[in-house]
Amino acid sequence: MRGGGPGPGGPGGGSLRDRVGRRHLVLFASVYALQGVVFAYVVNFNLLYMKAAGLDEGTSNDVQTFAIILPFALKFLFGPLSDRVDLLGMGHRRPFIALGIALQCLGLVGLAMIDPGAHVLAFASVALVTVLGLAMYDTCCDGMVLDETPEADRPRVQSVLMVSRFLAATVLTFAFGRILERTGIGPGRSEGLLIGCALLGLPPLAMALILRERRTVRTGDRFEWRALSVLVRPGGLALIAFGLLYAMPGWGVETNLPLFYHATGFDESEVGALGSARLCGRAVGAVLLPLATPMLGRRGVIVCGLVGLAGSTTAHALVGAGDLASATALGFLFGVANGWNDVLFATLAMGASDPRLAASTFALFMAVTNLNILGGSLFARGLVALGGSYPPLFLAAGLISVPALLLAGPLGRLAPRELDSNSDPSAKDRPDDGDGMA
Fold first, then answer.
1. What's the pLDDT at 430?
2. Domain-embedded: residue 5
3. What pLDDT, on the 0 to 100 scale, is given for residue 63?
């Protein structure tokens, strides 16, 4: 059963045909956990690594922005590729997932071999390839999630995926901080972390090569370019605006918090612990969103998420030097708000995506939140302009998300995309027959 609301496929359990296959869910969760591995290192320690190599904060942020924004701004191109191409007869999704993971693993090994202080262009280029691999498997995995997940099971699946990502990131952020406390950070001292991150990609790579994907395709799911028109409809535009207004300030603060902690007097171990608190909060927010939706309704969860984000962001202006307790509490609440909003946006984007071009339209919606990377660079530039003063930037970032409250009404009325009238009706009640091995 593809459509429908609460019922057998809802939170209370029920028929297996209302839920995604177990093996597929494990694959999806492992891929998202791998994203969490990279997130843990890049967000919390990569800027500090480049700074230890001798790069200034402006150059470090430029390298990070260059390496991340280009692949993620253009990641939607992998959507049409996987929607149209059955690579080597292996399917439309899993061979691209495997290729992306392989690129990321090789890129991480390459980064461990380059000193950014001596070869900044080479470091940035290899980082670009690494993130290109992540963008590829992220987009194609999302397409496979859309292909395999019944409508009623999407909130649960998105919650599982986000929790997998944030739990992996939480554990590894804490572990990385402890390791770096002993080894120090910088070229010649912490390359082992990058090698370890690369090795953690091998299990999901093996699963992507073994597990088969759905072979049946409904008439309404055939590739059609006109499906992209969903992006310029009123509901699509409201969703895009919401994504920009919550994600850009959220990421701008997130990526600069390690530098803020360092400037406030915290050491690498404390930076790691604070990063773990934020990521733990993201996991909690991802779990709470589907539980709160039946009680608060869609408009209610949108308002709660935005108010929580604005409040926890602006409150960082009150954190004083060495105040670990306040920094931990606010970091956790900031993470809860971001995890809540991430699952909310992804669920809305899944519903708004056109099934005729599933990976492409979903990736384009998600690409909006990937532009949040600009927020990190803008935050860093503002920091330079203000002479290193963080409080005004925290206040500004919090206020940017407030106008998104005006979108609660339109997004509350956003209905999931229905299959075309010429769809194969039998497909709606077809069990998940793709839960097997290649």
1. 35
2. no
3. 85
Which class for 361: exposed (0-12), middle (13-18), buried (19 or more C-beta within 10 A)?
Answer: buried
431 found inside a domain: no
Using pLDDT thresholds of 50, 70 and 90, give the confidence band for residue 335.
very high
Q: Is residue 432 part of a domain?
A: no
Confidence class of residue 415 from pLDDT cuts 50, 70 and 90?
Answer: low
Q: In the beta sheet, which residues pair with residue 437? A: 211
The continuous run of DSSP H or E covering 288 comes out as helix 268-314
Summarize pLDDT for 349-359 with one digit per residue, the tens: 877 776 666 66
Element (DSSP H or E) covering residue 344: helix 324-352
pLDDT in tens, 116-136: 888 989 999 999 999 899 989
Distance CA 360, CA 139 (A): 8
Both tokens assigned to 302: 């949108």
Counting every residue, how long is the chain? 438
11 domain-assigned: no
φ and ψ of 292, to 5 deg? -85, -25
Which has the closest alpha carbon to 334: 178, 166, 138? 166
Dihedral of CA 418/422/425/428: which sign? Answer: negative
Q: How far apart are CA 3 and CA 347, in angstroms?
A: 14
**How far apart, in whole angstroms, are the C-alpha atoms of residue 48 and residue 331?**
19
pLDDT of residue 229: 66
Q: Cα separations (Å) of 413 from 111, 235, 271, 290?
A: 46, 8, 41, 18
Domain with residue 381: its CATH number is 1.20.1250.20
Mean per-residue pLDDT for 297-317? Answer: 92
User: Do residues 90 and 438 make contact, with C-beta atoms less than 8 angstroms apart?
Assistant: yes
Helix-strand-coil split of the chain, %, nearest 5: 80, 0, 20
The Cα–Cα gap between 337 and 330 comes to 11
**HSE of 277 in the Cβ direction (CA atoms, 13 Å)?**
19
Distance CA(321)–CA(319), nearest Å, equals 7
Quote the CA–CA distance of 46 and 259 in Å, as a whole number.
11
Contacts of 392 (CB under 8 A, 6+ apart): 317, 382, 386
Containing domain of residue 323, as a range?
A: 21-417
Query: How many CB atoms sit inside 10 A of residue 353's CB?
Result: 28
Q: What is the pTM of this model?
A: 0.67
- The yes-or-no verdict on residue 217 having pLDDT over 70 is no
Q: Write the DSSP symbol of residue 92.
A: S
Task: Tally the domains of the chain.
Answer: 1
Token pair 């229905």: residue = 418
The alpha carbon of 167 is separated from its chain's Cα centroid by a whole number of angstroms, namely 13
